[in-house]
Amino acid sequence: MECRTRPEDGAGEPVGQELRLAEPQSAAEARRAVEELLAERARPGEVSPVSDALLVATELVTNALRHGGGVAEFRTAVTTGGLRLSVSDRSSSFPRVLPQGRAMTPGGYGWPLIRRLAREIDIALLPDGGKRISLLVPLR
């Protein structure tokens, strides 16, 4: 089973460095990798699309660690359309949006936030188990 959104023009091939972490042990480790990859695009003190990319990477890895049995692989690359992120985990369960009106209940905001900030979201079940979530975070 797969879930896809339509690709945007210009999302294309990698134009800069690509990065792969076999099994990051924390969201902070993945976030540092994205920070290093996007260092020249960030402007100190400015909220920018780089901040969106860091937030999406953090949420993807946090969700994989909390709900997906751990991160099996983390990949990222700068493309003509933005930052391509891919996180594989060990669960075949798709992310779900929790019902509104759950006052005073912690959590449940990560996936809606990812869907709001990212484009070209693709969720694919892997042949050996688990799933891969790939997406694009625009950087302009």
TrEMBL record:
GO terms for molecular function: protein serine/threonine kinase activity. It holds the Pfam family HATPase_c_2. Residues 22-132 form the Histidine kinase/HSP90-like ATPase domain. It comes from the Bacteria. Residues 1-26 are annotated as: Disordered. Keywords: Kinase, Serine/threonine-protein kinase, Transferase. Transmembrane segments: none annotated. CDD domains: HATPase_RsbW-like (cd16936). InterPro entries: Anti-sigma-factor_SerPK, HATPase_C_sf, HATPase_dom. Signal peptide: none annotated. PANTHER family: ANTI-SIGMA-F FACTOR RSBW (PTHR35526:SF3), ANTI-SIGMA-F FACTOR RSBW-RELATED (PTHR35526). This is Histidine kinase/HSP90-like ATPase domain-containing protein.
